[in-house]
Write a structure and sequence with these properties.
358 residues; Lyase, Ornithine Decarboxylase, Chain A, domain 1; 2 domains; binds pyridoxal-5'-phosphate
Amino acid sequence: MKPFPRAEISAQALKDNLARLRQIAPNSRVMAVVKANGYGHGLMNVANCLTEADGFGLARLEEALALRAGGVKAKLVLLEGFFRQVDLMTLVEHDIDTVIHNEVQLEMLENASLSKPVTVWLKLDSGMHRLGFTPEQFASVYARLEACPQVAKPIHIMSHFACADEPDNSMTVDQLAVFEALTKNSPGYRTLANSAGTLYWPDSQADWIRPGIALYGVSPVMGDLGLNHGLEPAMALVSQLIAVRDHKAGEPVGYGCYWYAKEDTRLGVVAIGYGDGYPRNAPEGTPVWINGRRVPVVGRVSMDMLTVDLGKDAKDSIGDDAILWGKALPVEEVAEHIGTIAYELVTKLTPRVAVCLE
Ligand SMILES: *Cc1c(COP(=O)(O)O)cnc(C)c1O
């Protein structure tokens, strides 16, 4: 018997999504973003499926080291760079690229003595104002990196979009213009596009795209679906009905007696809760896919269980699958009900959920 709850990860969907993104951005290399445990899909699962990627993007040094320990030879890029000077030696030893986005990192690099130069992606703040050097600082920082023997040449350049997931927001056009003006003659690689940039702003695809969520088959845009772009959900979150009960009109269910049945019905209890990473604030009506249809969550989500209204004539049985999201029930739709984004749902699953590569 398969364990439950489990996140079933489709190797084929991951591969197909990478191929699809190559079609969408035919002139760009792909830096597959696999931070946060491959967006909850399992870091090594994803890396092993995406052997065709040109490189991987990570948020933390530990993630990059885990890939190297797992035998991954591809280019690895720390998207926030290193945080301590000693980490520079580790980068050199394991051939890991780093982003440089602030003065402190720059000084650590200038003062380091390394056995080999490190490959650097200089981060330009083109308008998001989270990380990166301002357009005013850019030329002088670039010149310092050029002059720094610890830096491999050419220097690559990166920026990140604030609003690319809003197809009507001109912020992205402005960011592109800032980036283009400052970087158009630079000899290294240039990269801006996350998933939203890749899908919605083809002008931003540049030398490398950096898709995360799209690789997992999910759209970054509210109201859109990965399926609309030829992408396929890579994760199905699956559990089971562990009780099916007759329930009378006027009776409540669960903690706080939060919901009362308007009419006689049958309730199902699904073995998943906030202890698995399914949000406690999922409101009444959040859909769950059981035996080929959507049924609504009713009552409070508890730590290990949630309840659904199966309907008066329901034929569902204990042991039937309950799919919290997957191909038939896109995670984007579930996220919208819960008032969050699909990114948060897939990355927040807890270790109690078995991650099964299929
Ligand atoms: C997380 C991240 C990405 C990927 O973003 P998606 O929206 O998941 O495609 C790309 N670039 C940087 C710098 C990131 O931090």
